[in-house]
Amino acid sequence: MTLWTSAEAAEATGGQVTTDWTATGVSIDTRTLQPGDLFIALKAARDGHDFVAQALDKGAAAALVSRVPEGVADDAPLLIVDDVQTGLEALGRAGRARTEARVVGVTGSVGKTSTKEMLRTVLGAHGRVHAAEASYNNHWGVPLTLARMPKDTEFAVIEIGMNHPGEIAPLSRLARPHVAMVTIVAPAHLEAFESIDGIAHEKASIYEGLEPGGVAIWNGDLPTSGILSEWAKRCGGVSVSFGESQGCDMQVTDLRVSDTGSVVQARTNGAELLYKIDAPGRHFAVNGAAVLAVCEALGLDRALSLAAIGRWQPGAGRGQTVTVALDPADRNTTLSLIDDAYNANPASVGASLAVLASAPVQHDIGRVSRGRRIAVLGDMKELGPTGPDLHAGLAQLPATQDLDRVHCVGPLMRHLYDALPDRQRGLWRETSAEMAADLPRLLDAGDVILVKGSLSMALARVVDAIRDMGESEPRSEGRG
């Protein structure tokens, strides 16, 4: 299906085309580019103009550029603009303007991507949904997501993130959501902010982009909930709180968490709701309430939403539980791996440790007769001068104290390693590669292992090393 014609893209960006073309997609990376994509020559670590010839050779329909790159023929299909980033933003703005989709914006210190995916699943039960396949939530990711949106989209979910003050509001104004949500405010990117309150104000600025009469949804369980509430009332036509606290408009009233998932009761506008989340974790269950609040705000069929939310599962690196079979001859000789290696900050680590602490282990099936709960934690980045104390403080969490062993990766996690009692202290390694080489021999059947850290710590290497101990599959696929 045609996404952009050369005439439409030129009108959107004010650029000049060298020849007529039609694009079926939009790409910023030649490694994942598909034939028919419009290639956007952004400047990042490398100048995208250096890859235009390669993109065209791979079948790109055209390239959005600010100049004719070297090695590219004068009659090559190009859209020439003054500035590529500005051109992408204009394309995204036009993509948003030409659709009648109802748009949901999502931000927060924790849970943006998992909540976006939960919304994709639930809204998908009601119509055609568009959302980024990855965490495309920054200054190029948001306009790229909008530029990729098909004209016939019925619901769009736009994830919006930040690293510094002043980033969220312009992206929200670009997305123009009908509903905007803040999942949680927690210590993250503290090196760029003076306090948690500063982070709360930045997150709440997502409401500045709301369409007239739009709905502002916010977490009512936080020390900074007052800040979110003030912004929601000032910017939103409707303000809706969610959480476990008394007075929340979408209140979780009962929550039962097991190793396979969560069963949740909630109340909104006098109605009692019952839903299941097919993943363990209080944070997933409460964010599910926020997703249902979105559905209520959009006036969607409640029964359909409640059924759909039970079909969502976290993806790889986002809390997915994987069963690793260590002995092909004995399918009961397994360990469980909680793959949460994509990102980390104090709040998300605390939530994941709580999941691990409550996970059931298996006894008498391995070399070690007693199954163990084991955490492998990598550095949490962008915490500024508070970083060392926040890492060491993880040792005092009740969930941490319930664990059998904690292995640490990176210089900041050395502070946690030193704070742990001898009975819990496992390995400390400088890098994930070193941990991946040394850890597997210490694991055994019956264990449950959590792997979590900031993306730059590359803890996916540790995940892969554990998976390589045997055959692995998501646990939910192995259940009857």
Automatic annotation (TrEMBL):
Matching InterPro entries: Mur-like_cat_sf, Mur_ligase_C, Mur_ligase_C_dom_sf, Mur_ligase_cen, Mur_ligase_N, MurCDEF_CellWall_CoF430Synth, MurE/MurF_N, UDP-N-AcMur_synth
GO cellular component: cytoplasm
Single GO MF descriptor: ATP binding
Domain of life: Bacteria
Enzyme class: ligase
EC number(s) stated in the UniProt entry for this protein: 6.3.2.10
Catalytic activity annotation: D-alanyl-D-alanine + UDP-N-acetyl-alpha-D-muramoyl-L-alanyl-gamma-D-glutamyl-meso-2,6-diaminopimelate + ATP = UDP-N-acetyl-alpha-D-muramoyl-L-alanyl-gamma-D-glutamyl-meso-2,6-diaminopimeloyl-D-alanyl-D-alanine + ADP + phosphate + H(+)
Major place of residence: cytoplasm
Keywords tagged on the record: ATP-binding, Cell cycle, Cell division, Cell shape, Cell wall biogenesis/degradation, Cytoplasm, Ligase, Nucleotide-binding, Peptidoglycan synthesis
Subcellular compartments: Cytoplasm
Function per UniProt: Involved in cell wall formation. Catalyzes the final step in the synthesis of UDP-N-acetylmuramoyl-pentapeptide, the precursor of murein.
Family, per entry: Belongs to the MurCDEF family. MurF subfamily.
Record protein name field: UDP-N-acetylmuramoyl-tripeptide--D-alanyl-D-alanine ligase
Taxonomic source organism: Marivita hallyeonensis
Lineage, opening ranks: Bacteria, Pseudomonadati, Pseudomonadota, Alphaproteobacteria, Rhodobacterales
Name of encoding gene: murF
